Amino acid sequence: MSTLIERLGRLYSAVVSDVLDAEGLRHQTLAPALRPLAGTRVAGQAATLTVVAVDEVPAEPYELQFEAIDALGPGEVLVVEVPDVPSAFWGS
């Protein structure tokens, strides 16, 4: 088991979540209300995005996330609102 944990530890949490989604194991992420104990500070102009819950997985599930990130300009920071959605936005 420790070998598996070591291997998974080298992956980004978003990759693990994507693989679980592909295997039909949805909703395997931490609740968005959980926050890290130590924070990282970021400064820049805010580019905002609001997440909404959906009833089924879209054909391109991360299309809007990628568009939002690709649209960021130098010095901009993506700020995501996740109201009443039972999973994290992306990763940990």
Short description:
With 92 residues, this protein is α+β, with helices and mostly antiparallel strands.
Which helices and strands, and how do they pair?
Layout: H1 2-9, H2 13-22, E1 45-50, H3 63-70, E2 76-81
Parallel strand pairs: 1-2
Structure commentary:
- This protein has a two-stranded parallel sheet.
- It has one domain (2-81).
- The protein is an alpha+beta fold.
- The radius of gyration is 15 Å and the shape is globular.
- Helices cover 28% and strands 13% of the residues.
Q: In order across it, which strands form the biggest sheet?
A: 1-2
Mean pLDDT: 79
Series of secondary-structure elements, N-terminal to C-terminal: HHEHE
What structural class should be given to the helix and strand makeup?
A: alpha+beta
Radius of gyration in whole Å, from Cα? 15 Å
Q: How widely separated are the two ends?
A: 22 Å
- Overall form: globular
Helix content: 25-40%
The low-pLDDT segments are: none
Q: For the report, how would you describe the main beta sheet? A: 2 strands, parallel
Beta content: 5-15%
How many helices?
3
User: How many domains, as an integer?
Assistant: 1
Assembly state: single chain
- The count of DSSP E runs of length 2 or more, i.e. the number of strands, is 2
Search tags:
single chain, two-stranded parallel sheet, 92 residues, alpha+beta, globular, 28% helix, 13% strand
